[in-house]
Amino acid sequence: xxxxxxxxxxxxxxxxxxxxxxxxxxxxxxxxxxxxxxxxxxxxxxxxxxxxxxxxxxxxxxxxxxxxxxxxxxxxxxxxxxxxxxxxxxxxxxxxxxxxxxxxxxxxxxxxxxxxxxxxxxxxxxxxxxxxxxxxxxxxxxxxxxxxxxxxxxxxxxxxxxxxxxxxxxxxxxxxxxxxxxxxxxxxxxxxxxxxxxxxxxxxxxxxxxxxxxxxxxxxxxxxxxxxxxxxxxxxxxxxxxxxxxxxxxxxxxxxxxxxxxxxxxxxxxxxxxxxxxxxxxxxxxxxxxxxxxxxxxxxxxxxxxxxxxxxxxxxxxxxxxxxxxxxxxxxxxxxxxxxxxxxxxxxxxxxxxxxxxxxxxxxxxxxxxxxxxxxxxxxxxxxxxxxxxxxxxxxxxxxxxxxxxxxxxxxxxxxxxxxxxxxxxxxxxxxxxxxxxxxxxxxxxxxxxxxxxxxxxxxxxxxxxxxxxxxxxxxxxxxxxxxxxxxxxxxxxxxxxxxxxx
Length: 503
What we know:
By secondary structure, the protein is α+β, with helices and mostly antiparallel strands. Helix content is about 35%, strand content about 25%.
């Protein structure tokens, strides 16, 4: 491995520390009792005795001034200044050179150190820890890309997206605001789970490796189980297993977990993504729209303190209620084309006029979906329920109670993208089997996203499933909205990337 001059220098410092009897990677627990943000928040002037603290973190800057120095220590909650003098950390006369050798020469920016001392305010007014003891906790062998400024120009910025996503560990250290985005992600999921739990719904876990990839129209990842000598699929949705639990007697179940789809990557898609699916007995899609409005309004308030979120040039307001618009009306509103009653050939012609690339594998449902995606989806900035999808697009959805050929389904559009998909769930086993047969025919025509026939799921429905409403919400997209991010990679700690170049 070729090492830079700085990397070679740090490895030499590592050897010298060990030669001096200092373990640069000690195994013993370090007894921290405070964090930077809490120290600064609770500091009071003119209080005696001065507070004694033990903190640990990375050394992010250092100003050496002879026998005294100032460093900036970064821990998990923020940064705090530390004042260090030779006489304090090397009180014994025979160890005076330890300050000059260890602190001045062998420690580097990025090293983890422990500090024991007391808290005071400097003459410049900055809350600071006066160090009485310094302990080396971990030697950093690579230099951090710390931003430097000269004449108003920034140098060594770590802002290349490819590097940031590959080396998220560096991104979190050197770039402000990155950690806060992921803390908000945690807040979003905690609030979501809290609302579902408060409503009495049970959190469950279902298989990730499945013999049949069901619950959505998507291309799956395929793997192989050696012992059984069978192919298995990484799940594309949790839907069919959660419905089995409704059949089994649970009244409301949900799962927050990973799904996997072998599809393209872009600003809104990652091959593995987090989704929440909820199924509640004796409800329909109208109830689910009401519940979703309440849920998202609560999440926005808990995460940001307001229902309004700034996303690029748009301001999205999650305050309920949201507009409700049937999909064919949405297409007619945006394009002027009324697709209701059209034949498949007529829809193909409309699709071509709308700039959709048409293939022989596309049936009516796929054509409507593509036309909507091309001409309408990106125009809905404020939360909007697009409802009443044609049956060809909705193989797991109950037929509409009053509109022939349509189903009781909605998708929630926010900031031009789908955030949620929900149904009045199909619970007629005969109808369900026929819908699966229709999907099989689409597969035979070349649609590699068509659903498989899940015989066991049909069998479960034959035992009886009560009227049920279900919804899936994309957690990654929800976090994007709540944090004002415009790319999914910004809300995933480790997004999928192309292999690194070996050049």
